[in-house]
Amino acid sequence: MINRVLGTVVGLVAAAGLCACTNPSGKSWAITYELSGKAPGETVTELTYAESNDRYQDEVSDHRLTGPLGLPWKLEVIVSAGRDAAVTATPAGQAVLSCRVLLDGKKELAKATSPGPGQPVKCSKTTDT
After folding, report:
1. What is the mean pLDDT of residues 101-123?
2. What does the alpha-carbon distance between residue 119 and residue 17 come to, in Å, rounded to a whole number?
3. What is the model's pTM?
4. Is 97 in contact with 59 (CB distance < 8 Å)?
């Protein structure tokens, strides 16, 4: 009798958990964001990046950091399949920044250099579904 009740409770809890998922397969991508400057000692005044808080949810949140942040900068995150992996940074002063978005820390998905001194740089790639 107790086993039957426990089995029913476990089944109900599992079903409730599945209903809350917007990405029940958990298909997500391991993304690495990288930022660098041309000269030593350059910093970033503002940086935003996209990240999925939970691999079983389709939502991607933008996180904002304010500086000064030293370069080079690197962060590993999870991004749900079919969503944008993106990083944007604003340099301090007249620095020229470069960014990259990597899959599994190796395969380059996106790369960019700021269009001019003191201008922001953005790298983004929509992940495969």
Report:
1. 96
2. 45
3. 0.79
4. no
Residue 123: enclosing H or E segment and its boundaries? strand 121-126
- Tell me the HSE value of 58 on the side-chain side, using a 13 A CA sphere: 7
Q: How does pLDDT run across 64-81, given as a tens digit for each residue?
A: 999 899 999 999 999 999
Token pair for 78: 């999870």
* Bond prior to 120 in cis (omega within 30° of 0): no
Residue in 100, 95, 99, 89 with CA at minimum distance from that of residue 67: 89
Structural contact between residues 56 and 24, judged by C-beta atoms closer than 8 angstroms:
yes
Residue type at 102?
L
Closest CA to 94 of 33, 49, 38, 48: 38
